[in-house]
Amino acid sequence: MSVTKLEVILSALLVLIVCEAGYYLPGLLASYVQGPYIPPAASSTPAKVIADVRPTAFSQTARVQPTIRLTQRESRKVEMMLQDPTPAEDIREEELGEATIPLVSLDPPDGLLTSEEQVVAFDMLRQEFAESLSAFAQDPSTPEYRRRWEEAQQTFDEEFGVLFGVEAYNQQQNVVMRAAMQP
Amino acid sequence: MKLLKLMTGSILALALVGAAQAQTTMRITGSTAFRSNTHTAIQNIFDAGTLTFAYLDNANGTATISNTSAAIFKGNIGGVATTIKSHWSGSEGGIQTVAGAPNFTVSYFADTTSTLPPPGNKLPNGTALTDSSVPDVAMADTFQATSIFHGTVNGITYATLNKQKKTTGLPAGQIVGVVQFEFVASNSAPGGLANMTSQNARDLWANGHMALSLLTGVSGDESFTVYAAGRDIDSGTRLTTFAETGLGALATVKQYEPLKGGVRANTCCGALDAPPYTLEPPATINGITEPLGDGGYTSGGDLANAISNTTSGSTCFATYLGLSDAGTAIGNGAHALTYNGIPYSVTAVQEGQYTFWGYEHLFYRDTTVAKVKTVADKLALQIFNTDAPAPHYNDMKVTRKTDGAVVTQNF
Lengths: 183, 411
Fold this sequence. Notes:
The complex is a heterodimer of chains A (183) and B (411). Chain A has helices at residues 5-24, 26-34, 72-83, 116-134, 143-164, 166-181. With 183 residues, chain A is mostly helical. In chain A, helix 3 (72-83) packs across helix 4 and helix 5 crosses helix 6 (166-181). Chain B is of the alpha+beta class. Chain B has two domains: 24-179 and 358-409, D-Maltodextrin-Binding Protein, domain 2 (3-Layer(aba) Sandwich), CATH 3.40.190.10; 180-351, D-Maltodextrin-Binding Protein, domain 2, CATH 3.40.190.10. Chain B is built from ten helices and 25 strands. Chain B has helices at 2-22, 35-45, 91-99, 198-207, 213-216, 236-245, 300-307, 323-331, 346-351, 370-387, and strands at 24-30, 52-56, 70-77, 80-87, 106-108, 121-123, 131-133, 137-140, 151-153, 156-158, 175-185, 195-196, 209-211, 225-228, 256-257, 259-260, 263-264, 278-279, 283-285, 288-290, 315-322, 335-339, 357-364, 398-399, 408-409. In chain B, the strands form seven sheets. In chain B, strands 1, 2, 3, 4, 6, 8, 11, 12, 13, 14, 21, 22 and 23 form a 13-stranded mixed sheet that branches. Chain B has a two-stranded antiparallel sheet with strand order 5-7. A two-stranded antiparallel sheet of chain B has the order 9-10. In chain B, a hairpin with a 2-residue loop joins strand 16 and strand 17 (263-264). In chain B, helix 2 (35-45) crosses helix 10 (370-387). Chain B is globular and about 85 Å long. The termini of chain B are far apart. Mean pLDDT of chain B is 93; it is low at 14-20.
């Protein structure tokens, strides 16, 4: 099958148009490529990870009310992620640590956040945690998703300690541990 | 004839507009801890033989182009007529005013300020900075994620800086160098006060004062009191200190105001007013409230001067300073403290033993116009490759994910 010059030129033009559209309308392309947010699928893996125990998320109230509340969608996103970040069955335990509940996913105890700036920062952290995973959430059963979860959890836990201090970090860890131990 | 005049006038006007457009002006603000290195780098990016500058003197009359709080540089960069104006507000102030554009302005020297070739034109302390403009570039001791100013705060939405536009050749996060800090005690502090632990710092800045015995382990020091002094919330040095010591970057703290002759001390080498000391008064900075005790110095240079004074009545002050200001204070009689038992040294930072450091960043908005971005990028690379203090980023044997985070090996 021979290709005429005209066909080559037309093909090149088409590629150019697609590239241009991708450049000027990145949102359109991204939404097409990434697809909508998909919550983590239920895992067939037995409950090996702490996060398999469903936490009592968002049941507590901070002393200072946040000036920015997470949208229902964002809250739901974190909640759904918490329910089961478990990877596929073929993941080797020695390769991936235990998935744990991120500190930012649970409301801190009364009095832990003492200024409005701290409350705003906490809400931002929670939102950013959700956003950092949403792009990889098409298939929560993949090792890649599990790896991203662990990376994000470590990063945001550390950020929590940096922003709110060692004592707040310890207190919030207790909150997470208590939530994880609930039946 | 009339038509000819009109045409000549129009051409002249167009030529002037063209010349004005060819002129690039970049306004920079932010980290006082890094101002010395930044000023050096600014001087080094101008075409040889074209640079003239002016800078503001301090209350002591001892300012140099390295430690001045405001300056204006004029000359050519890559053949283009360029003016760079600096006024250092603190890292947090820098992030706030650059990311919060157009809601905030910073005051700079007027375009018409008289400049001279090196060593420049030193203008008297108190010279008015009459150009109030939105800054283009922020030097910051912290990541924007650690700053108060990201997301929406007090109804103002802060842009994520360098989200899309970045300086090619810099590490992620627009890192240009390693910014280092020291704890320093005032001029007359007892010799036994030689070290600050993270625990000590958490105690001192949470409560505002503590017995010297907690720092020395000597029971005889129980009746001697160490008072906390420090920077206001615009400071990245403050934020890094509280992140590093585990107090929390966003902690509300208690700091005392060193007075001299009844007013905030900003000159060195004398005696502070006798105790009792008072907590920093409540203040509001760019819409953010500092309750009683939470405020502090706007300038690291002024704090360095204040800590270089003597105290009386079994008391002394302790504070945190960027390396350059700490050097000034120590040179004027203040005492350098080791941190967690480790004395500051380039090697101790480089190898990870001394952890009181962070990364310096050069931030700008994604919407920054191309000609300003060109100058900002050139400055960023000049700092990164040459004028950042030792150890340079690429010489570090350790790394940390964010401000105050665990220091780990990178090899």
